[in-house]
Automatic annotation (TrEMBL):
Keywords: Signal. Residues 1-19 form the signal peptide. It comes from Pelomonas nitida. The keyword Signal applies. This is PDZ domain-containing protein. Residues 7-102 form the PDZ domain. PROSITE patterns: PDZ (PS50106). The keyword Cytoplasm does not apply.
Length: 118
């Protein structure tokens, strides 16, 4: 099965949005494998954060890897499940487990509160 890369923007619009009316302010890429009907996530990388966004204030940086959402590992999850887990309302919090840099670095949990997109 082929791996493919999907770009996801964590904003409040579109089907790829991670926040319902909330906004996290980060852009990520998802590496996934499997058939078009059964895509499984391999890796989620932060591509960028918006200046002043909740993601930037929480300390996320380009190149960070999201390992888990609410303690549930993203590797092996369906891409559609990932989007559902992160449909937030403004004021709701999401807990991400992230790793900066190489796999040797320790993972850490970050709590981000979604805000209303201005």
């Amino acid at each position: 099965m082929k791996n493919f890369l999907v770009g996801v923007t964590l904003i409040a619009t579109g089907s790829a949005a991670f926040a319902s009316d909330g906004w996290l302010g980060l852009r990520s890429s998802i590496e996934a494998s499997g058939s078009i009907f059964d895509r499984k996530i391999e890796k989620v990388l932060i591509e960028s954060t918006t200046s002043g966004s909740p993601a930037e204030r929480a300390g996320l940086k380009q190149g960070d890897t999201i390992l888990a959402i609410y303690g549930r590992e993203v590797r092996g999850a369906k891409a559609s499940e990932l989007a559902q887990q992160l449909q937030l309302q403004a004021g709701q919090q999401v807990t991400l487990t992230v790793r900066r840099g190489s796999d040797d670095n320790e993972a850490r949990q970050i709590v981000i509160t979604a805000v209303e997109k201005k």
